[in-house]
Amino acid sequence: MTTTLAMPQFLDPMYLLTESWLKNAVLPAILVIVFIETGLLFPLLPGDSLLFTGGLLAAQPNPPVSIWILAPAVAVTAFLGDQCAYWIGRKGFGAALYHRPDGRFLKKKYITEAHEFFEKWGPVAIILARFVPIARTFVPVLAGVSAMDYRKYVSFDIVGAILWGGGVTVLGYFLGNVAFIRDNIEAIFLLIVFVSVIPMIASVAKALLNRRSEAATTEAPARTNEPTH
After folding, report:
1. Residue-number span of the structural domain to which 77 is assigned
2. What integer best gives the mean pLDDT of the chain?
3. Burial of 141 (0-12, 13-18, 19+ CB in 10 A)
4. Per-position DSSP letters for 191-223, written without gaps between them
5. 4 in a structural domain
């Protein structure tokens, strides 16, 4: 059983779980990779495809792990990983940025703006980011840096962990033998996420345009009042 995707072996979940030395420890391998990707700021690992492949293997005769163990374990690990990333952002990067002087690119107002963003869009961003490579690694950190309300963060992080960690694994269990879905799982999720965030993108773009308009309006009277020579 092989995948048709051309990728380095360390990024090919089928190779990792069936041909590499990890084939004798499928469950621990999946859980460790999930935790590293979601909790330790290392995004260059197979994510969606790893869970999908794990579910596919769980559906085979004499599976290396039961789906009844795999799906809940992945969901719990995904939740713990995001918790780790959140507190890295809140107690690590966030504290450092807040107490340092404003630089050319890093300013305290950016933290305030990030906080406002996560207060408004945080629940949606936290859940949808699970299905986007790289975003699922860094969105929890940004939520921590912005000091998003922790109780709100935990509530929606649980939902995201179940939908992604458990959901993608179960999807692989039932649909892993459908070649089109198996070979395009990341692209399918990206399309779904893109459609879902269109309202968010429109809102952010509108806010930026309004800010530019207000800035231009403020500058115009100042230029008018400048003394002429």
Report:
1. 9-223
2. 80
3. buried
4. HHHHHHHHHHHHHHHHHHHHHHHHHHHHHHHHH
5. no
